[in-house]
Write a structure and sequence with these properties.
Number of strands: 3
CATH architecture: Orthogonal Bundle
Largest sheet: 3 strands, antiparallel
CATH topology: Arc Repressor Mutant, subunit A
Distance between the termini: 56 Å
Number of helices: 5
Order of helices and strands: HHEHHEEH
Strand order of the largest sheet: 1-3-2
Structural class: mainly alpha
């Protein structure tokens, strides 16, 4: 019987999970439903090219304003603001207002570590 994985992984290379005597996979941690839901939401959020580019730019500069993103991304201000709002609401970005400008930065070191891994870069953030 053919599976959806057959086109990606040839049948003779499908990974096999070694099971313990009781039929349960040995030494595997479970993923709690709440954690799984959070990860799904995060990956859906990051599954957009514009939002990935925003995060990539913020790895290079500690803080950028909306107008700068508009120029870098080649998109309208409302479109950029929408993406920034989604990232902010998800807790990935923090925002501060200075006069008429909103400045955005990465929210936490945990977020930074994830992005360093995702983009395979090391950015010196200082102490």
């Amino acid at each position: 019987m053919e599976t959806v994985f057959d086109s990606v992984i040839p049948r003779n290379e499908v990974p096999v999970v070694v099971k313990a005597d009781n039929g349960v996979a040995a030494d595997l941690a479970t993923l709690e439903q709440a954690s799984a839901n959070e990860l799904v939401m995060l990956f859906k959020l990051l599954a957009d090219e514009t939002r990935l580019r925003i995060l990539h730019y913020l790895m290079q500069k500690p803080e950028l304003n909306v107008r700068t993103f508009v120029g870098l991304l080649g998109q309208t201000q409302p479109a950029v603001s929408h993406h920034l709002a989604l990232l902010r609401e998800a807790g990935v970005l923090q925002c501060r207002r200075d006069g008429k400008h909103n400045f955005y930065r990465l929210a936490a070191k945990r977020c930074q570590a994830f992005l360093d891994t995702a983009f395979c870069t090391v950015v010196d953030r200082g102490p």
